[in-house]
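User: Fold this; tokens only.

Assistant: Input:
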Amino acid sequence: MSSAAKAPRARTRVGKYELGKTIGEGSFAKVKFAKNVQTGAHVAIKILDRNHVLRHNMMEQLKKEISTMKLINHPNVIKIFEVMASKTKIYIVLELIKGGELFDKIARHGRLKEDEARSNFQQLINAVDYCHSRGVYHRDLKPENLLLDSSGVLKVSDFGLSTYSQQENELLRTACGTPNYVAPEVLNDRGYVGSTSDIWSCGVILFVLMAGYLPFDEPNHVALYRKISRAEFTCPSWFSPEAKKLLKSILDPNPLTRIKIPEILEDEWFKKGYKPPSFKEEEDINVDDVAAAFNDSKENLVTERKEKPESMNAFELISRSQSFNLDSLFEKQIAQGVVKRETHFTSQRPANEIMCKIEEAVKPLGFNVHKRNYKMKLQGDKSGRKGHLSVATEVFEVAPSLHMVELRKTGGDTLEFHKFYKNFSSGLQDIVWHPQEK
């Protein structure tokens, strides 16, 4: 085994934060779990590539939007605590939401009852209205951006932070990632107003909450775009007449005649059980850290530094043993109606051998492999229900002769990830360690 493979995995510190596992990943950024070592508080840190922002001439716009978002203190919008920068990265420290995505709840239990759907929709509109009043538009509202905290309160993430990637030459590609939620004027690529396109996306989300499926869903993109541009959808029989009427007003293909938020707030169906948000504006917030992160001065830059990790003791190792056997893990999840986006397995083989074996197993399945140290990105050739399936893998050392391999879906459909795993794991049986075996 090489000395690099034997070396314990160091923990990374950025400023006063210790970075943990990746909890979200996209084309332009990744989000990591982190801990404030001074207070012990847990946060999420969104990491952007500084050079990418510079290449697209979006530094000033991103600086403006982060400054605006930092001043926003709304119960239904994820809070920005601070911003840092290194020579190559921008770090946005965010409120950590532990309740998961709202749409995971629908995947597990099916559509919501109308009253529950309305309550979530009311919170979504509250967030959108508040941010629009401050000139901030999401432009990419989708299920992945709707989270629930431990009390069930809806939180919109990435508000104002996803817009920097939507350059003119990237707009169509960005929209195609989740075209089912995108307004017709965005797909037509003729320019659009952020407020009206956000309202359309809110309407699609409301439909899904109450129906349990999408109003516009076709396997062929041309057919899908045609349906969206004409707003061709049918409400299920269990929708109330009042809900149907509101949806027709929101999913109006003409942005000029589409209902506006002040009208939604006065709608009779919307107002039922409505509770206006109650919160206080914070007066002592400043944005000096944002200015420092985006200027050219080197004195305010932070550095990523590695620190020796705490060793994993026997109790911790045993407590994670249920994830070592991939078969039992997935069978249990399928039986419960839930398929996780990530899993682990362990191996007593050298790290280099594990990497080679993974590459051998995925290439016949039509995946491109990108390796960097002991990390791999697997990208599927074929487009699935939610675009190309992509999987991130990383090899960790938990003992001198024991490695843990993490597999995490970073793009595509979760059920397709499960199907991929079923084929992929059959080629790994000779390297997977089963601790129950003698």
